[in-house]
Amino acid sequence: MKQYPTFKAAACHAAPVYFDADASVDKACAWIREAAGKGAELIAFPEAYLSSFPVWSGVWAPVETHEFFFKLVSSAVRIDGPEMHRIRETARRHGVFVSMGINESTPISVGCVWDTNVLIGDDGAILNVHRKLVPTHYEKLTWAPGDGSGLRVSDTRIGQIGALVCGENTNALARFSLIAQGENVHISSFSPRWPTHPLGEGGYDLEAAIRLRAGAHSFEGKLFNVVASGFLPPAAIDMVSRGNKGVRDLLEQSPKSVSMILGPDGAPISDTIRDEEGIVYADIDLAKCVVPKQFQDVAGYYNRFDVFELKVNRRALTPAQFSADENKPIPFAEAFDQGSANEGNGFDRSLPN
To answer: Where are the beta strands (DSSP E) in the chain?
Structure first.
């Protein structure tokens, strides 16, 4: 009889040290050690954990956000950079899988940043890099749109792991593209808060939206969903509000995000955390994904592939394509981009010695 993986997952409800990538990495490595020490083999961090979520764009006019944009870009990290190397080495040392949300920079442009999720293997190798397909609402003032190269499910010893970032967990086609690859462990990373309306005019209930989206994907895919959301600490509220009481009140009263882990029926199987930083844990048994698919299997019998057809373009996009003289070495930055044609993301997946 087939043996299905069992393991413990951890969702980190965490705040970065805003605009300080090194300090945020220190904190992340400490949390990875803590979660691994409690038996977790998959540890998920929030959207843009390294090292700021642009919440200021929801409370200030664009002409007043240049300072914050500069600081975010200046603290963004590269996939092959020293910050990610430290996290990868920590994952390798403890033999755990780590999902990390980053502001990803590029050698192509000093101002281009992606909202990226990186999945790191238990050997420290990069398993996948997914850039958020469409920044949501005011996030477009900060992040560039991603591409389909990261719409991939990683086949690991603990399961078939996929991930989407924040609002794209609402994108039914993106979600189905992962389910159709056999995803049985999903990682949903979210922002700390998401103000959308002035005080007193209602607004976007972030917690309700997360529960709805995460539960829907778990139920539709008959899979486990690890939800890791950010936390907005008082120091960040002080920084963003700049002494403006109206901005402070709006940030403090906007609905908080939540972190939790859900089972294949869409119901939480862990504690839920919202009001403070912390880690929630749950035991995952992938055998529990089997019987629910007897009822509805949207990637199997419970579909009409003769009626519906989905095509996914996973070609990595670059600003230009260069033809190299066969006798002339290709500069590193150019080779880094051209590698995307073969690997799907254009990065070195192995952990450097």
So the answer is: 6-13, 40-44, 97-106, 109-120, 126-131, 154-156, 159-165, 185-190, 224-229, 260-262, 278-285
